[in-house]
């Protein structure tokens, strides 16, 4: 069964390979604002981290700067920060462990966003508290980018309403198409009609 265990930062062993890059600045803003409920997850088979590498880097950076521990992080008797780590899961192989590392990040990314709903939510957060918006990893410029320019403040399209029937005027020019058996017949017919003063053109 999975559980939360507080572990000293220096004792948390990272994965051998982790291809995920991190926006450490945004992670730090989030931790400073919301605290750290879960810092990462450990694989019991390998004893190595399978999630939370970026969060632990930020916690180490903050501890090294002598900052106060964020909410959710404890301090041991020796002054070392204790991070909340999820324990209890074991991989079946090294490949299984690395697949979990990738899945923990890629599945969320591939889900994407409802851009309109996200823009509305971020706008409300921004109006409530600008610092909260920064903690989400977005800024006001990002909100503008989420909404297409042609949908920004454009007025709603008029709804057509039934009106009086309109009289359709007949065309000023009437035409007729004549099908010819051969190109020679077409040329001959064009020349004859042109000689009669008709306005004619060939269709290929």
According to DSSP, the number of beta strands is 5
- Coarse shape: elongated
Through-space gap between termini: 79 Å
Query: Main β-sheet, in a few words?
Result: 5 strands, mixed
- Portion in helices: 25-40%
- What is the average per-residue confidence, as pLDDT, rounded to a whole number? 84
What is the structural class?
alpha+beta
Query: In angstroms, what is the radius of gyration?
Result: 35 Å
**Helical segment count:** 7
Any low-confidence stretches, pLDDT <50, length ≥5? none
H/E series: EHEEHEEHHHHH
Kindly estimate the percentage of residues that lie in beta strands according to DSSP.
5-15%
Itemize the secondary structure elements and their pairings.
Layout: E1 3-8, H1 24-34, E2 40-43, E3 48-51, H2 53-64, E4 74-75, E5 81-89, H3 94-111, H4 115-128, H5 130-135, H6 140-146, H7 183-195
Helix pairs in contact: 1-2, 4-6
Describe this structure in words.
The chain is of the alpha+beta class and 204 residues long. The protein has helices at residues 24-34, 53-64, 94-111, 115-128, 130-135, 140-146, 183-195, and strands at 3-8, 40-43, 48-51, 74-75, 81-89. Strand 4 and strand 5 form a beta hairpin.
